[in-house]
Amino acid sequence: MGKKWRWGVILDAGSSGTRLHIYRWKDPEKALKSASEEELRNLPKLVTHKEWTKKIRPGVSTFADSVEEVGPKHLKSLIDHALDVIPKDKVEDTPIFLMATAGMRLLPQLQQSALTSEICSYLRQNTRFSLPDCNLHIQVIKGETEGLYGWIASNYLLGGFDYPDRHQHGKGHHTYGFLDMGGASAQIAFAPNATEAERHADDLKLLRLRTLDGYPAEYRVFTTTWLGFGVNQAREAYVKNLLEQYAETEVELPDPCLPKGLRTTLHGDPLKRRERGTLALIGTGQFDECLQMTYPLLGKDKPCKDSPCLLNGQHVPAIDFDVNHFIGVSEYWHTTHGVFGAKDDKAYDFASYQQRVKEFCSRDWDQIKAKTSNRKEDGTKIAQEACFKASWLINVLHEGIGVPRIGLEAIPKANASKGALEHAKEKGFLEPFQPVDKIDGIEVSWTLGKMVLYAAGQIPPATRDDRYPVGFGSNVEGTPYDFQYAGSSWQSVGNQTSEADDDWDLDAEDILDRAKSNSINLFFAFVLVLLLLCYFFRKRDRRMRLYTRVNQFFRRPRKPGHSNPRKGSGIAGNGARRLTGLATKFFGGRRPSGGGAYERVMEEGDASHFELGEAELDDGHDYSDSSDGLSALSAKSSASSRRFGLSSGLATPQVVDHHYHHGLASPTVSALDRSGLVVRTESRERLTLSPHLAMSGVGRRSRAGSPTRLKSPLMSPLQET
């Protein structure tokens, strides 16, 4: 399977683990041949499947003190999984990336360099994946870059790039904002409205993609990151504040962000009983108080050097929620759809969400534990952390970023056409904020954005001079000095495309339908074979009765004056003869009458030997009587032998009599012809010596009915005398 597909492998090295992602797309050279006008204006179509991803724990950063183990003990299982998916003949053309995020950003630069160098060496020595530049393929990416990749992935899946007319939010705006929160950091990326984009042009990134027709597509995007604002890092900062507040006077610290009655260590490990001299956290289940105590972590009191600012004194252009609709991934999804919400919730409503959180967090821990401990995943751990994560998410969203509180505050009315609103309503992205996990079955991950950028770089430019390369950098005309290229270039995969490749589709549903169709075809083929076997193994007299009924049904009626009722003319005649030959194979030949005449024609044997020979040939050869070649010869010879006494069961179609052109003998082929013309001549003389046979015309009919004579354009029928 494979000649027209491109593949890409990317490893997301996060703080808690490393996740493998595999993507596939059609080679641009092949895609251009069959693309419609609409598809030419779109980006390459990437596809992935659930089975093409795999995550292992812990994160790459945990190998900082033992870098030599990161390959065999961490990456090997992911590489093996990738090799099980990607065709062997495509591995060398498949790029591999490992991009580390917040977990690695927290390490000193020396340890970061040691890890990335060891990872590159391991991949080059133990795999055949394409890895031309380690600095580009194996790196610790900035938070801004991670946010930009996430923004690309979100708008790619939602259709904001390919179908801007369907996503008009007002004021000429058709893209969506992106929010991401992991364990160590949080990101934001969005395209400001026209006014803010002009006012803060120096703060934006120039992103350049390339559509299938080779023309550039440019966007101006703002992106930033807040290191330390992931849920795990925020929790550590929160516990540190508790220590500063209570440690001098208390051994057990009251924690309003833990369910009532839950006792843990400072690191979150549950304690079954009170231990003397050990600092412990005791849950009080006061969610309102939890919100108040997590608010200071936002850093809203930090000085803002470049107004406006959102969190921690970092500059962010003003967000116009009339047109900027955000989707949130990772913790934004898990925290709103874990223990607090059903998986099928389509919209985020602040009022109802906060009410569910309050009800959950006010319960006793024993009651919560009883309902969550039976889950396949670590439900107890999730329930233990849920209240703090919910308070942190609410504060970041509404107090930090300023997302309107749906259900409490008035929501700005989008200035959009009715058609665009209906299309957005189908996907559920009309609100200012919407948590998502997958869009159209594909996980929303920043890794997809990186691979979309790479695939777009493989499209040949519309003009020979590539003045608009694919990538991103500072917001200036042309190619900025800090431009980061996509890392790909267009190269033909060759013209070796099999028919099977052309029939293969990108969509998983079509693949499934194809598999179902093949299964159905195999089932009917099995049933047909089973029926044929049943016919073959029936007793001979039963097969003959069935054959007689079929033959009478299809046999042409005898007309007055016809000397040969079996000899049809045209298509009907040929069909009747072929049906008779086919029926002979399936049901067996009829026992001949006039045994004496048959014995005089055949050199040796009797009628019973003739029938046995015919059965042996049919069982040993697979001829189709619909063929015009040797198989038709066998079937027609069989029909002639039943009427005139010639042997068809022992016929060998491979033999051709070249003496026929001299009028010496009939070209009828028989297993009894092992002596050549001597046998045929002798048989003819014996027929001539018998007045009874001579008058009956048996010899003439046997020659005239020979299929070999009728097939060859160089032969003419033997003149009757």
Automatic annotation (TrEMBL):
Q: Which InterPro entries match?
A: GDA1_CD39_NTPase (IPR000407)
* Segments for region (Disordered): 555-575, 688-721
Which residue stretches does the UniProt record annotate as biased composition, category Basic residues?
555-565
Entry's Gene Ontology BP terms: CTP metabolic process; UDP catabolic process
Which GO molecular function, any one, fits this protein according to its record?
Answer: GDP phosphatase activity
Q: What is the top-level taxon of the source organism? A: Eukaryota
UniProt KW Transferase keyword: no
Q: Name one Pfam family in it.
A: GDA1_CD39
Gene3D superfamilies per the UniProt record, alphabetical: 3.30.420.40, Exopolyphosphatase. Domain 2
Please list every transmembrane segment annotated in the UniProt record, as residue ranges.
520-537
Q: Protein name, please?
A: Nucleoside phosphatase family-domain-containing protein
